[in-house]
Amino acid sequence: MADLTTDFLGITSPNPFWLASAPPTDKEYNVRRAFEAGWGGVVWKTLGAEGPPVVNVNGPRYGVIHGADRRVLGINNIELITDRPLEVNLEEMARVKADYPDRALIASIMVPCEEAAWKAILPRVMETGADGIELNFGCPHGMAERGMGSAVGQVPEYIEMVTRWCKTYYDRPVIVKLTPNITDIRKPALAAKNGGADAVSLINTINSITSVNLDAMAPEPMIDGKGTHGGYCGPAVKPIAMNMVAEIARDPETRGLPISGIGGITTWRDAAEFMALGAGNVQVCTAAMTYGFKIVEEMKRGLSAWMDEKGYRSTHDFIGRAVPNVTDWQYLNLNYVTKAQIDQEACIKCGRCYAACEDTSHQAIAMSADRTFTVKDDECVACNLCVDVCPVENCITMQEMAAGAVDPRTGKVVQDQYANWTSHPNNPAAVQAAE
Ligand SMILES: Cc1cc2nc3c(=O)[nH]c(=O)nc-3n(C[C@H](O)[C@H](O)[C@H](O)COP(=O)(O)O)c2cc1C
Ligand code: SF4
Ligand code: SF4
Prior knowledge:
4Fe4S_Fe_S_CS; metal ion binding; TIM Barrel; iron-sulfur; iron
């Protein structure tokens, strides 16, 4: 059986599945049960500065997007950092770490953007025996209005400055948790690296309004008739998070900076995808909130079985393996030609492919009087839309045309050599370069 043991920044954990800083890691009771359930590590719910803790709303704090089967696709929340005293959290962390030395325990921290505030809290966190810290520069609501969270994460200079303070006053790994509420994720990642960060973790939640109550005419979750934007997470954000992870993993300036991948991870496959894109481990929040701690069992079993099947003995064998295959559009092979093909045995004659292609793509699907659907190769541009809308898995597949065959749409012979936009005759820049 494949070994799931993971070394992230010198912190070993029995598997790469950590719980992200959020309600599942809010207190000793939760974290002990999470460890008993098999989680490899936790990032404790974000700690605030000494003094009176923050206060949460007393009404609903979640909005949700459901799929047609009421499966949770995305959650948005207006919760703040921990609303329990710092002292209590630190005592609990020390006890839990002492009892579970083989699990990773990271302290998430958010204190004012002042050196004294960081200098004051870091030695206290150190005393707990926590394996490292994660700087919460991502929370987009409530705390940002107080000059913390994403208000820091949106300013690379602040990220670099605070990271440097942490590296000065704390001598264990420092992970910088990034906000996705920014145009180019590479900038804050580079700032973290320049400040001396050992790793970045991403993503925190995305600014969002999930629904509007049309009777009350207010966004939900609604607190006494008013709503506010919250942080969006869950399966819906996974594509956004993976792109950001890949951007950091392949950018020459940030390549090699360790990444903890977060955002919508629900299955072992989600985790493997993040890791293939360069994440050294993963963190999970919404899936645990939706299905409970035991979901980690399926994640561990599934990842291990897949690794066995592929012959990967350790997670390090496949971390980053997909990164070289992430490229810019201009380098995609324009000589690669495919056509849609419909499996008539599998087709249930619903007509969705026809409607999609006829109305919004390239009028490349024919419908006969008896509702037999066939692809017109001389019209098909291979956009894949019919595959995506077909309700029957693998009923429509994209078939590659062999080199030497004539594409009936263009009348051109399919070439076997790679050619991209940079040298294409229609590219004015390519023409200029040739001249
Ligand atoms: C209710 C709730 C509270 C959260 N609180 C924190 C927090 O205190 N600190 C933090 O860094 N992230 C916090 N997060 C963000 C998560 O750690 C995580 O980055 C985000 O939910 C994306 O992961 P997911 O899609 O697996 O949920 C919170 C998320 C939720 C849903
Ligand atoms: S791949 Fe696109 S163009 Fe071709 S049949 Fe399907 S929807 Fe139409
Ligand atoms: S969408 Fe799929 S199942 Fe429906 S008609 Fe087209 S090929 Fe058949």
